[in-house]
Write a structure and sequence with these properties.
By secondary structure, the chain is of the alpha+beta class. The chain has two helices and six strands.
Amino acid sequence: MRSRGCSRTGCSTRAVATLTYVYADSTAVLGPLALRAEPGCYDLCAVHSASLSAPRGWEVIRLPEATVDPGPSSDDLLALAHAVRVAGLGNEVTVLAEPAVSRRKGHLAVLADL
């Protein structure tokens, strides 16, 4: 696995954080290094992420750094599905411990609601 460098011009230091923007909210979000490079995101080294400033009127949200990379979890897909349900239906969603039926298609699993 090859590490990514800082996106700042002239800096060749290894990136440790990813910066994204939410233009509609005038917000910059600086968090742990993303798993892969994405368009519109900027990878920053420790020096540039620590000295980051935003334009006047913008808010900078600094997410805590992950001290240990936990790697992928088997619960990631279920957590994502639950977050989507909560966002769409409100907080009245119950979470099942184990799905009754699971069909795999490629890298995604189709889960049946009970």
